[in-house]
Amino acid sequence: MPSAPLPAPHPLSSAPAPSRQNSLPARPPAPESFQDLARLCATLPEPDSTAQEVIALREAQLTKPPGSLGRLEELTRWLGGWQGRVTPRLERVQVIIFAGNHGVTAQGVSPWPQEVTAQMVSNFERGGAAINQLARTVDATLEVVCVNGLRATADFTTQPAMSEHAFVQAVATGYNAVPADCDLLCLGEMGIGNTTAASTMAAAVAGGSGTDWAGAGTGLDKYGTAQKAAVVQEALRYHAPQLSSPLEIARRVGGFELAAMLGATLAARHMGIPVLLDGFVCLAAVAPLAQMHPEGLAHTCLSHCATLTGQTHRLASHLNMEPLLGLGLRLGEGSGAALAVAILRGALACHTGMATFAEAAVSRSDTLEH
After folding, report:
1. What is residue 216's predicted lDDT score, i.e. its pLDDT?
2. Which residues pair with 296 in a beta bridge?
3. pTM of the model
4. Closest Cα to residue 33, out of 156, 171, 137?
5. Residue 25 binned pLDDT confidence (cut-offs 50, 70, 90)
6. In a 3-state reduction of DSSP, which class is residue 258?
7. Residue 201's closest CA among 296, 319, 304?
8. What 3-state DSSP class applies to 133?
9. What letter does residue 150 receive in the DSSP assignment?
């Protein structure tokens, strides 16, 4: 369903400025090798600073004290800078759920059987999941992508989760899934066992033990959580010599859907599309990009963090990211990212719809004028 049209922008927000969105080159071809992928990760476009300056200038003249809308003002500049537009748009919001299966479930890391991944994909396709309802409320289009045909990765306690070829193919699947006309990309995932992969990736990226990073996931008791921690620790021990490479982390202890999310995030950067990440698994999946480039995740925003003490909070702190929401959300499947779209719509509505002091004939204080 198309989103409601935004109010016409005020003259200042339409001030002449280059529109990077309209001049961006076509998306580079999807990677076909580790070398291709490394090059794409190392050569990342920057935001449009001119668009950000025009947006900041308009914000400074709206009928409110400076900075009084807090992060809403930052979010508008973030949207405009990455879209390359002096008036950002949210006409085409895309939610993509990447689904995959994990061989590490053979180690008893989930109370749910692997078949649930395919069953939940069917639920998404029938419109019966939480993400279907949330995407509808924010006028977002939902797509589900089954990566590698839902064939499972290898058990990464005894071998790499994916071969180099299979890993690059999964990255390319996500890379090619991002629509060119998208204004905002929201990422989600589905995969029984993927919190174990995410925990292992987080430990490899940020340091720490299996006990530090293994949580209850989709309902483990304390014994199950202890087993999960032991599995994470064993994977870290087994792959230790290769975990200095971000891409090897993603290949060896990640998963097909995690690799696809990395690819989608990379494509969005090269296409001028800002990205909302959904919680711990998404954040762990794209963390290698931050290791490969100091501003690798600058075009992304973390939608939510369930608690101030859990794995998402620790990884977000390591990556210097501040979530938009709390709410105790632990579902995955893009639910937090979809909810956060409403915040971005609110930020954009204020920026485009509010009057300036001059337009409203409202007097400004001397402290605002000087």
Report:
1. 74
2. none
3. 0.91
4. 171
5. low
6. helix
7. 319
8. helix
9. G
Q: Do 3 and 135 form a contact (C-beta atoms < 8 A)?
A: no
Per-residue pLDDT tens over the stretch 48-85: 999 999 999 999 999 999 999 999 999 999 999 999 99
C-alpha to C-alpha distance for 101 and 117, rounded to whole angstroms: 7
Check pLDDT > 90 for residue 193.
yes
Query: Helix (H, G, I), strand (E, B), or coil: what is residue 304?
Result: strand
- Rg of the chain over all Cα atoms, to the nearest angstrom: 21
Q: What φ, ψ does residue 160 adopt, rounded to 5°?
A: -60, 140
Amino acid identity, residue 38?
A: A
Q: What confidence score (pLDDT) does residue 365 get?
A: 66
115 tagged catalytic? no
Site of tokens 């993400």 = 131
Find the DSSP H helices in the chain: 20-23, 34-42, 49-60, 71-83, 115-126, 130-137, 164-177, 194-206, 210-213, 222-239, 246-253, 256-271, 279-292, 311-318, 335-353, 357-360, 366-369
Query: How far, in Å, CA of 271 to CA of 41, rounded?
Result: 13
3-state SS assignment for residue 152: strand
Pick from 69-78, 213-222, 244-253: least confident:
213-222
Is the CB of residue 258 less than 8 Å from the CB of residue 167?
no
- Among 257, 333, 359, 369, which one carries the catalytic annotation? 333
3-state secondary structure at position 94: strand
CB 284 within 8 A of CB 198: yes
Count of CB atoms situated within 10 Å of the CB of 45: 15
Maximum mean pLDDT: which of 215-219, 290-294, 306-310: 290-294
Q: Which residues lie below 8 Å from residue 224, measured CB to CB, with a gap of 6+? A: 108, 109, 111, 216
Q: What is the 8-class DSSP label of residue 356? A: B
What would the two tokens of residue 3 be?
């989103």
Residue range 176-194: mean pLDDT, rounded: 97
Share of the chain above pLDDT 70, in %: 91
pLDDT tens track for 112-152 = 999 999 999 999 999 999 999 999 999 999 999 999 999 99
List the one residue out of 95, 49, 93, 47 whose CA is nearest residue 348. 93
> Are residues 290 and 203 in contact, defined by beta-carbon separation less than 8 angstroms?
no
CB–CB of 229/216 below 8 Å? no
